[in-house]
Write a structure and sequence with these properties.
The protein has one helix and five strands; from the N terminus they run E-E-E-H-E-E. The protein is mainly beta and 136 residues long. It has a domain at 24-99. A five-stranded antiparallel sheet has the order 3-2-1-4-5. The radius of gyration is 17 Å and the shape is globular.
Amino acid sequence: MSIELDFTQIKDDDYIPPGLYHAQVSSATARNSRSGFPVLEIVFTLLAPGFEGRKAYYSPSLLPQSMQYTRRALIALGVPMEKLIGKPTLEPTELIGRECQLYFTYASGDVARTRVDTIYPPKEVEITEAPTIVPF
């Protein structure tokens, strides 16, 4: 016996198509991940037409082996390089209001979703390679 399913009336709020989107930091906090490791949790609000107000999350690790990626994200958000050398102190709230470009890619797993792959400065960025999109 088969059943008819009607998904036409629901909206998939979590799915953002892969691509480049203009965004602004709406909150930033240092916390521990579910695994107990320190992360910098950054919440972005999308400013891109058609996606205004949507939230995106990026949580780079604060473990020593991951700091290069955290530094890249902070540089893209406009934190001066001189504040990112040695063992500086950063107040996460300094990031609030900073604009950037977020590059989303498809993330496979139990649920079809997209994730923030890279943070770019707010200026126009040209993506020369199309993302690979895997259908649901």
